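Field reference: "sequence" (input) and "structure" (output). Example, Single-stranded DNA-binding protein:
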Amino acid sequence: MNRVILIGNLTKDPELRYTPNGVAVATFTLAVSRPRANQAGERETDFINIVVWQKLADLCASYLRKGRQAAVEGRLQTRSYDNKEGKKVYVTEVVAENVQFLGARSGNEGSGFDPAFGGGGGGGAKPPAKGNDYDPFGDPFADAGKPINISDDDLPF
């Protein structure tokens, strides 16, 4: 089984390129903190190369930016190539199959809208308007302390 799940922050904006056949490919590096401190009491960070293909590559290039937190699910891949000096170079990277955009985007803090959770990508989806009774992308506790208008027929129990 080859499954990798990571949560970290982007070290720079994703780089978007296209293959000769027109297939989108985005690359970025995710900084992932280790769960335990080292012997000196410091938490170390791993910098992991991520590769994303096709439509997901376009979405990542459009919505992810340096510093943004993201969750990546995919598979570990090792490949090699000969560099300009003729030396074989080995590269280990995660080929992402699923990317969730976490945290707030700059300029849109508080809206809670995230294309990874139902929109974006040129499909005309827009963030829900503020003041809606139900905001599926926003803070579910935004109206804490106010009465909830719900009938017994709407309850599943």
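The chain has one helix and six strands.
The beta strands are 4-10, 15-18, 24-37, 43-53, 69-82, 88-102.
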